[in-house]
User: Fold G-3-P permease from Raoultella terrigena.
Amino acid sequence: MLKNKNAWYVSMVDVFVYMVRFGMISWLPIYLLSVKHFTKQEMSVAFLFFEWAAIPSTLLAGWLSDKVFKGRRMPLAMICMALIFFCLLGYWKSDSLFMVTVFAAIVGCLIYVPQFLASVQTMEIVPSFAVGSAVGLRGFMSYIFGASLGTSLFGVMVDNLGWHGGFYLLMGGVICCILFCYLSHRGALELERKRQQAAEEQELALA
Assistant:
């Protein structure tokens, strides 16, 4: 399983998803209170929207990837991460209470979609006997590296470069996530072609 490049691609998708997710969860309250000068009540509302907006998006994501994208998971994940990039920029630059809350809600709505789709992708691109190991690798990479990048490294960046350094880190993480989504998508297409070719060869052999 460790030699399976597709397992590593999808694990790296999760690493950068967790980086952005934990960066927002860990630092959103402090940022809104100290930089945007939200009241505690206003900050709580923005945080609530960030967390609860994920529920409808994950339900919709599975249906969209099945029906619209024909079972291909990563195109939708890439679209979500691209939207997150611009919403992070808006969240960072906007001084409007309403718009900051809206941007936080959209990020919260979309950030769980790539995480959910990465789980589905893992089961589809890894042989059945190695799914458990691949899921374990994803979990290990996500929490050890992804969460650490979003919490500890974000804090180091803020201490040394200011808040803009932290946001550059998150937006860089989004770009890296899109890259690994693309690589994972290519890997899935390659497997799809191989399976189709094997099926055609089997049909010819039986003919």
Remarks:
- The chain has seven helices and no strands.
- Residues 163-206 form the longest helix (44 residues).
- The chain has one domain: 5-206.
